[in-house]
Amino acid sequence: MLDLARNRLSGSLPLEVGNLKNLAEIDISKNALSGEIPSTLGSCNSLEYLYLEQNFLQGAIPSSMESLRAIQQCRHWKFRNLEVH
Prior knowledge:
Helices cover about 0% and strands about 30% of the residues. It has no helices and nine strands. The strands form three sheets. A four-stranded parallel sheet has the order 1-3-5-8, with no helix packed on it. Strands 2-4-6 form a three-stranded parallel sheet, with no helix packed on it. Strands 7-9 form a two-stranded parallel sheet. The protein is globular. The N and C termini lie far apart (about 30 Å). Residues about 75-80 have low confidence and may be disordered. Its main location: other. Keywords: Leucine-rich repeat, Repeat. It is found in: Cell envelope.
């Protein structure tokens, strides 16, 4: 588990997040992250829980995220700024 929630992080989510292939849970909610969700996140094959809410992310949800078959819960799809393609 990677828990970086409520840490006042800003800037964009780095492409290297896709290197975290064995993590089952990523929580980077309640920060000030901006920009788009990197398509490399789709490489995190073991990911079951993803929490991105309460940031300033925008743009389309990467199509690479469709390959995350283990996902059980993802909190961020409800954002007004994000588009599902």
